[in-house]
Amino acid sequence: MSESHNHYHSVHQHTRNSSSSTIRLRPSPLITSTATFPSSTPSTKSSDEVTELSLSLIRQPVLLVQTMLAHSDTRSIFLFLVLNFTFMLVQFIYSLLSHSLGLLSDSIHMLLDCVALLVGLLASVMAKWPPSASFPYGLGKVESLSGFINGILLVGISAGIVVEAVERIWRPVVIERVTELLVVSFLGLIVNLVGIVAFNHGHVGHGHSHSHSHSHSHSHSHSEHSSNSHLHESSHEHHDSHDSKSTDDPFSSPSIGEKPIIPPSSTFSCADDHDTEKEKARQTHNENMHGLFLHILADTLGSVGVIVSTALTSYFGWPGFDPLASLFISILIFMSAVPLVISSANSLLLSLTSEQEYVLRDALNDVATVPGVVGYSLPRFWPTGDGTSGAVRGIIHVQVSEEADAAVVRQKVEARICGALKSATDLFIQVDRASSVKH
Amino acid sequence: MKLSGGSCIGTENATEENEQSLPVDSPLPRSASPVKVPRKPFNFQSTVASRSPVNKPNQRRGHKYKHSSVSMNFFLEPPPRPPPVLPAHFPVPTYKDAIQSMSRDQKIQLGWCALHFLIGLQLWLISYESTVLMAISHIIFYDAFAATMSVLVDVLSNFEVWKNSSIRHPFGLQRAEILAGFASTVGLLFMGIDIGSHLCENFMKHAITESAPHDHESERFYARGTPIVIILAVMATVVSSIVFKNHERIGTAVQFSYIRKFKYGLNNPLYLTTVCSCIVIISLPFWTSEPWYSTIDNMLAVVIAFAMCFVGWMTALTLGRMLLMGFNGNCARMILEEIQRDSDVKSVEESRMWQVHYGLCIITIKLRLQGSAVDETSVRANVNRIVGDVLKANLGAVAMTDSKSPGFATSVNGSATVNAVKVRGRTGIQWESTIDIDH
């Protein structure tokens, strides 16, 4: 355990060191478009910026690969994708040469796997893009979205397998070319095992932070350290983008570094004690990697299932083992995919955890007692994109009395909220005179 | 509690008759609660518990000089402030709550959705070898899901937690609708790809084995009352799209500006392909001979797979952008450009614009004004006007459930913070602006 721990840290260090250099390498079309913002004539035609982005991805493949190799998580996905694709290609060519239909459909199945991996890879890369006009908070949520997609697909796939298995129990299919099938599934198993090792490594690194959470003070700093690698990088990016262009870029995020660093308040760590396992998992997971891991796991189970059921069939002579194995595996896949779907959906719904709610209510009570504040309305606070740090962004409208100084009140309100919430970033506070607000 | 107790408080006030004197030795505080009233043996009027101790000078403790002498009146009493409005908390409805709240109509609608599913299932069961029928059955599943969703949204929108903001769910639960739509769209996309890959596989199998294994085509298409099921499927599609507008709920998120002119469901490629291909399949025996069935089937299936992928991809992009907290980049730039034209505005420091769900955009802007004498209220009103104008001019740029007709009118409703562009008298899209003025 400690070995993997150390190793993870070294990888992590590497990521942080290399992050500043990779940011300059990366093509960032939106930065340039926003930097030239005052002169650009806005076209009334709604051009799709997502397509714009993907086009730029295709244009600079070398830079893209460099970016992928620079980060540990994208590197493991990328290398496994290459491995998987090579294996698929070999299998495909062999199936064409040997006129094997079973191998053909297996290689097409692997192509779909490669697509899923590609989605995960893109999500992992896109999550590191800076905020833009189209995505004012960056694309941090893209990893949750990719995890959600993978989870949904796994649920769908397991349902499909169940249907197929039931059909095969009804009308048994005689399997031909048994040795060929065995060899291929054995090779597939090896490839997928490599994938599991590669992904589980990153996975353990993430899981590590909450497996140690009984030692409280340690776990807190540690989990911040490990799972926030993302946040560190993004703050780097902001500084970079600030340097590279004029300061009046309205799309850039506030420089987090300028704010006084607020130590985790006692209220927050108190609330930490009664958080549920589910919420903890929600905070410390990278759903993208989780989804990909489950996907590969499902494939591995499939290979194992084929090998075991073929062996049993040839030993006992009953063809029903294959559908039974499929049923069993699909249930396993389903059960492992459901938590992923739930956790990523929670992250995408922008709901707070109960402890965040508790702290925030406290903070809002505090806001109401700031001298000069008459009331507040429309408090909306939501968790940040990565979902790992428990950071909160928000907006609030504050009504002040006639004689109060709006600037001072604004500052005090911000200080109260930032003081109570461990990491409230991106606060927007509208200060209105109470008399000017219509009710 | 004894009333007969001799040592009553000697109150000099005229309120003695009303005051149910409490014994001095009572451990209870003076402002006793009315809870004790029933325990009294006498039928007195209830005590005036709320009477402040100010009226009884001899009861005063400490330095309450307010009423005692003019000379000590240094401090002005602060104006009474309304009690702070605690942010609401709404319970999330359970299944039981939801079922109980359903009206009879909604139950009938849900029943129809189940029927729709069953028709799809039946079509799928008889579509052993026809790829087209299989593809259509998949589309019908998608339709039925969309119809079910629109009923469920109807049911759930009766609950407070769905629409209203609370601390736990800052944007209500309306994003759940987007999430469900996204999940089903991912399913559609996946099914489209799956059918496409099946077609490729079949094609290549033909290429490898160089033989046409089908030789009982007519049985394949017309076994077990296939035409009846196909007619049922068409009916289900039409009824659902008229009654539930289920295509609009998911489909108009897709902004096909060039198809939007058409009416009666023709604006949705899926609807069109379903109905057309059903008609083609049914009419096969009337205009062609059996050897052509397989070819026509495959060609139609290619078209349907393309339609599924196209609609799925476009919808997934639109919904995915909302889930990733995105906005149309051009709109954002236009709004900012307009704001910077305002002579009172010195610079726009930061801006975040994003769409939460079909009905709500969040606009947050941090401004620096020219001087301190500028009227903030008018700046805010101006910003809101600009946002409204830009959104009105680019209705296609934001996803709405009802955006077919261009006959809209802008109106800013009563509240200073929630604004809406109205489409045909109904609220098309709302936005909330938070304008943080940096002093």
Structure description:
- Chain A is mainly alpha-helical and 439 residues long.
- Chain A folds into 2 domains: 2-27 and 49-348, Up-down Bundle (Alpha-lytic protease prodomain-like), CATH 1.20.1510.10; 354-436, 2-Layer Sandwich (Alpha-Beta Plaits).
- Chain A is 68% helix and 7% strand.
- In chain B, a hairpin with a 2-residue loop joins strand 2 and strand 3.
- Chain B has a 5-stranded mixed β-sheet with strand order 2-3-6-5-4.
- Chain B is α+β, with helices and mostly antiparallel strands.
- The interface between A and B is large, with 83 and 79 residues.
How are the elements arranged and paired?
The complex is a heterodimer of chains A (439) and B (439).
Chain A: H1 2-25, H2 29-35, H3 49-59, H4 61-70, H5 72-98, H6 101-126, H7 142-170, H8 178-211, H9 216-227, H10 229-244, H11 266-272, H12 277-284, H13 287-316, H14 321-348, H15 354-368, E1 373-383, E2 392-400, H16 406-420, E3 424-433
Parallel strand pairs in A: 2-3
Antiparallel strand pairs in A: 1-2
Chain B: H1 95-101, H2 104-125, H3 131-156, H4 160-163, E1 170-173, H5 175-209, H6 217-222, H7 226-243, H8 246-251, H9 269-287, H10 293-323, H11 329-341, E2 345-357, E3 360-369, H12 376-393, E4 408-411, E5 418-423, E6 426-438
Parallel strand pairs in B: 3-6
Antiparallel strand pairs in B: 2-3, 4-5, 5-6
Helix pairs in contact in B: 2-3, 2-7, 3-5, 3-7, 3-9, 3-10, 5-10, 7-9, 9-10, 11-12
